[in-house]
Write a structure and sequence with these properties.
single chain; 468 residues; FAD/NAD(P)-binding domain; 3 domains; 14 helices; 32% helix; globular
Length: 468
């Protein structure tokens, strides 16, 4: 029987990063993945393919709507070649997943293809595609099996017309009317992809605003911008049925007054969140406990109730984000090596990759008010930047929340061009417990979008923004 210092079940960002870090620290490492490609949801049917389609659809929209203003004339009709767009997306996925395989080989990590399940606390059975089962032994085991799309009890996902994000990444036609159930990150990103390509898109959301977990000002601004892009929103609507007849989808929902509203389209994307995926792990055999929401219970060291078994990523508490899982993968590996790593979950940024992009780190205004923290606000509009006007990306703003007494930055919230990259400035500042004045006194290159961060910091520091 093969024996290892560490065995990792699942090869998504949490799992493969944990494997690499364990190997770097001198541990004999194995990783188990049930699919034929590594990388988990993120690389195969999540972060990477969705960004590829977002970029392709953005190029198309620019060509149709903005090239002429930039002085670029294209003779003839500009058309969408969805088949090529999907093929390019798949090429990006293939290249990325092969890169993970290369990293496994480089770090001498043994990869097992098959479904991993516990035989006991130190042995994992691997059921291979040919039906054969192999058992490996490991001193420590890390569960990194991720999550799957959630649904509602009365919805039948047929993967043809009533779909999840997985199917939305490989449609063979642009929908005429895509009904999106759920106004969170996934629904808005994929909704914008198909809106750009010509679909009518209606977002039906149970809460009274989209991206409800983020700062209210971001939600309000993104709603305004997406409405300007002709996306439709039905907020405070509780979906009660989804029916398919041929190519026609009927969604019925009750609005906030209890009145029934009917939506009709040809595709329905169900994006109501994700659930931890522990199916087939046979956790009972190892004695691993889950909480009442199906998540694996862990302590502050990400250890389960079984001393040598850890869990990371979407299967445990916290935000379901690839970079959060990566941090946890390194965290566990370094603990096993006797180091003392740390994770500040308050400093895990969240991003929505619509255009404009939305990004945030730290506390929202709503959270600070609820906690009774005295704070001050500095906000600066993107349209006041020369760089934003040059690129015609004038929507959005940067908002910095700072402690009223100490000036320490408590939260950074932004919407605009390249905010997915800009938010790291906020993370860095907060990691070193910077004040708003610290950011305000840093030189920012001109002309850049990042100047909005400096200006927001100036606004939070005695209300002295320069360019507004």
């Amino acid at each position: 029987m093969n024996q290892y210092d560490v065995a990792i079940i699942g090869s998504g960002p949490g799992g493969y990063v944990a494997a690499i870090r364990c190997a770097q620290l001198g541990m004999k490492t194995a990783i188990i993945e049930k699919y034929s490609t590594l990388g988990g949801t993120c690389l195969n049917v999540g972060c990477i393919p969705s960004k590829a389609l977002l970029d392709s659809s953005h190029h198309y929209e620019d060509a149709v709507k903005h090239f002429e203003e930039h002085g670029i004339d294209i003779p003839g009709e500009i058309k969408v070649n969805l088949e090529q767009m999907i093929a390019r997306k798949q090429g990006v996925v293939d290249q990325t997943t092969k890169g993970i395989q290369f990293l496994m080989d480089k770090n001498k990590i043994e990869v097992f293809e098959g479904v991993g399940s516990f035989k006991d606390a130190t042995h994992v059975n691997i059921k291979k595609n040919d039906g054969k089962t192999e058992t490996i032994e490991a001193k420590n085991i890390i569960i990194a099996t991720g999550s799957k799309p959630s649904s509602l009890p009365f919805i039948k996902i047929d993967k043809e017309r009533v779909i999840t994000s997985t199917e939305a990444l490989k449609l063979k036609e642009v929908p005429k009317h895509l009904i999106v159930i759920g106004g969170g990150v996934i629904g808005l990103e994929l909704g914008q992809v198909y809106k750009r390509l010509g679909a009518e898109v209606t977002v039906v959301e149970y809460m009274d605003r989209i991206i409800p977990g983020m700062d209210g000002a971001l939600s309000k601004e993104l709603t305004k911008v997406l409405k300007k892009q002709k996306m439709k929103f039905a907020l405070s609507h509780k979906v009660k049925s989804v029916e398919r007849k041929g190519d026609k989808i009927t969604v019925k929902a009750d609005d906030k007054k209890g009145k029934e509203v009917v939506f009709e389209g040809d595709y329905c994307l169900v994006s109501v969140g994700r659930r931890p995926y522990t199916d087939g792990l046979n956790l009972e055999a190892a004695g691993v406990k889950v909480d009442d929401r199906g998540k694996i219970a862990v302590d502050d060291h990400l250890k389960t109730n079984v001393d040598n078994i850890y869990a990371i990523g979407d299967v445990i508490k916290g935000a379901m984000l690839a970079h959060k899982a990566e941090e946890e993968g390194s965290f566990v590996a370094e603990q096993l090596a006797g180091q003392k790593p740390h994770i500040d979950y308050n400093l895990i940024p969240g991003v929505v990759y619509t255009w404009p992009e939305v990004a945030a780190v730290g506390k929202t205004e709503e959270e600070l008010k609820e906690a009774g923290v005295a704070y001050k606000v500095g906000q600066f509009p993107m349209r006041a930047l020369g760089r934003a006007r040059a690129s015609m990306d004038i929507d959005g703003f940067v908002k910095i929340l700072a402690d009223e007494a100490t000036d320490e930055v408590l939260g950074v919230h932004m919407i605009g061009a390249r905010c997915a990259d800009l938010i790291t400035e906020g993370v860095t500042a907060m990691e070193f417990r910077a004040s708003a004045e610290d950011i305000a006194r840093m030189s920012h290159a001109h002309p850049t979008y990042a100047e909005a961060v400096k200006e927001a910091a100036l606004a939070a520091t005695e209300d002295r923004a320069l360019h507004v």
